[in-house]
Amino acid sequence: PQLASAVTMGGGVAAEMGRKILLGQSTISGRFYIDLDELVPEPKVELPIILSHKAPLTQTDLESILALVQDEKRDDILSEEDKLCLAEAAVAAPSGGNCQPWRIAFYQGYLYLIHDEYYSESFLDFEHMGTYIGFGAMIQNIRLQAEALGLSAMFQYFPVAQERRLVAQCKFAKSSSRLADPKLEAIFTRVTNRKIGDRKLLDESERRALLELGIEEHTAQLHLVEQQESLIELGDILSTAEMNLLLHPQGHHDIFTKELRFSEAEVLATKDGLDIDTLNVSKAEKLALRIANNRNAMDFLRRIGGGEAFKKTSKKAVSKSSAIGIISMPFYSAEAFLHAGEFLQKIWLQCTLMNLSFQPMTQFSFLNLRLKHGKGAGFDLVQTETFKELAVRFNEVLPQIKQREIAFIFRIARESEPEKRSLRRDLNKIVYSHSNDKN
After folding, report:
1. What is the pLDDT of residue 10?
2. Other CB atoms closer than 10 Å to residue 20's CB: what's the count?
3. DSSP letter (8 states) at residue 340
4. For the whole model, what pTM was predicted?
5. How far are the Cα atoms of 189, 194, 232 from residue 416, in angstroms, in the given order?
């Protein structure tokens, strides 16, 4: 169907070209198009791409950060073997997109965890809350390893108020016993599993083991959603958030420029990010991802309100889950999300011990923070309204946490082991030392 105005314009163009041909003024041959939208374009409001301007922390940066600590030097009770064990457990923690945004320093008798923002800066990581989840998981790993070494680990979050990159300080003391928690072994076998098979329900012992982890918690809470109807609704909510991140210019840049690794050479060059082979996608889906890498194609989909096909895999994954888990906190702060990360790691390690597969699905929870606490900064009007609607729908599924902060969302299922695991950067690139730091 054509508008009468378009038909009239087409007739006028045909008449004008006919006149030129008959007068011998036009001898070219071909097909040509006249698009009024291009001739008289509407002003476009492009969302900015905030390219990272940060550089990796250098030796000098680390020394400057550590120099701010006012605590007196303590006797170093850790052997070199202890330090190696603690560092290996620490870096086995999960991080958003496997970005590994941390440096570790054994300094003046303390252990320090330092945030290297070069690796974690992204649209999804609003106010670094996703990063703090990862640091919390790292803290939990250190606690477990310390206990096995006969040490007690006492952490202080953000020990220097004016330097938030210094995330945590830990001092150690000798313990009277060595406690080898079964979760310690799971630190090194824990993995994100994105496989999708047939839905298998949690049995009562598995459900009880997970919920009991929250009994000693005073702030963090775990909620499990297992009803099929609720899973279908959550599947649409979570996949819509994931689609919107992919269509967002900055989100698209973060995913394809900073996060995904499309070849073995790229994987080995950085030893971080997500190897495409860990995503459990078919050859056709890999090809679709390469097409999605085209920014112009994604901008076109965003303009026409497209992209629904990108929701298919996540919707299926949620509907086939044994359960969707939600970790919530009573308030919003960096300290709260660090603690949520400690709780998350307890849950993830318990799932590993019970042979339950685990997959983070965090796009909605983190982007919702941008809407709720950042007034939708970086969203256009359409995305702002979309996330307002998603928040309403989410609260209808889980009204009991409407007044709480959603810290983390994950999928539990019963799948076979993934064929590939994400790599970790070499320890000498992460552990600060006066003698061997290479940065």
Report:
1. 80
2. 13
3. H
4. 0.87
5. 14, 10, 23
